[in-house]
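Run log, item B.
One chain of 266 residues. Sequence copied directly from the ordering sheet:
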Amino acid sequence: MVKIGIIGGSGMYSLLENADEVQKETEYGAPSDNISVGSIEGVDVAFIPRHGKNHTIPPHKVPYKANIEALNGMGVERIIATNAVGSLNPSYKPGDFALFDQFINFTGGRDDTFFHGPDVVHISTAEPFCPELRGIASKKAAESGLGMHSSGSVAVINGPRFSSKAESRYFRAAGADMINMTLYPEIALAREKAMCYLGIGLVTDYDSGLEGDPNIKPVDYNEVGRMFAANVPKLKTLIAAIVKDIPEKRGACSCSKSLEGAQVKA
């Protein structure tokens, strides 16, 4: 049974060498691609490229429910997810890494729950990211000398277009440090399955530019891809260090109890 799942974001389409590829079908359809199953530091893991191996799936079309359901069906209890993010906060610079601790959902029209009745569940996302995994990731980043922000709020938009300058100002005013197109509903769906979820962001750009500095231009995807590709080796090294340090059994977090008290009882 594989207990750790890794979901790779833009620029991270492969992770494991000599892996077995598993085709999965769920009641919500097929996941983004075949699931690679192999080991990192002697630990079995499953890997899904969120946009497909050839990046053919745009953010608003990612089969989020199928991805989470497929991993859950394989026995995965903990998810490590990577995301390319734009900066809305000047202290989050391109090339920096960040461990998310909060999100603000600005998406619309995405199927973001497994519970459409007759079971009615009101899941809490007050603290959506696993504190145990965040602690391990923070420690491993410090040990490796990797520049890492230990927290950060992420505004999540539908995409696939990037923001207007007015929208960027709005998201900053809402308290977001970063912006992304794929974190939600993935994080909420994982919580509905009582899975631990760690979100690692790589800052690739300054979204619509950095106000007050005309030399900082609005993002274009070529720059996103270049920045992410340049940092994939660091990301893979960090993930390997995290995986090696994850305890076999859960207990230091309450993620596994996320459904307790959430279901409406007749």
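Observations after the first pass:
- The first strand starts at residue 4 and ends at 8.
- The helical segments are 64-73, 131-144, 165-173, 183-192, 221-245.
Flagged for discussion on Thursday.
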